[in-house]
Design brief:
130 residues; alpha+beta; 3 helices
Length: 130
């Protein structure tokens, strides 16, 4: 099946330094993104949604800037795995902080993804006081 790349950007009233732990650490992600996140002994992340485990490798990390999680074994060749990437940008013009999310998966329903991420971001905004 063809994979779909969904990207959206959200403005948050939080500094990159304050926001970054919520998108890059197991404890931060557990608060708004999924039911639970555990770091396994092999340094992979175990994301749990509805009691179902999804193993991901953190393939990129730039302090207070971006993080990317690639979900293992989500493609036949293991070369086109699903991933989620969080990028934090600050507008030079307004000073506003933006969180850009890229969700690459089999879910090609843009409206469903927009609703899903909109709800998740609302939870994140409540936590960071945005």
């Amino acid at each position: 099946m063809q994979k779909f790349k969904y990207t959206d950007e959200y403005e948050l009233r939080a500094s990159p330094k304050m926001l970054f732990p919520y998108v890059s650490t197991a404890s931060g992600l557990s608060q708004w993104f999924c039911d639970k996140v555990n770091i396994r002994p092999d340094h992979t992340f175990d994301f749990v949604w509805d009691k179902e485990s999804h193993i991901a490798e953190q393939t990129s990390l730039r302090l207070n800037k971006s993080v990317k999680f690639e979900f293992l074994n989500t493609s036949e060749s293991n070369r086109d795995n699903n991933y989620i990437e969080f990028k934090i940008d600050v507008s030079d013009l307004t000073g506003s902080t933006y969180l850009r999310i890229t969700d690459y998966s089999l879910n090609a329903d843009a409206e469903e993804l927009k609703d899903l991420w909109g709800g998740l971001i609302e939870s994140l905004k409540e936590i960071v006081g945005s």
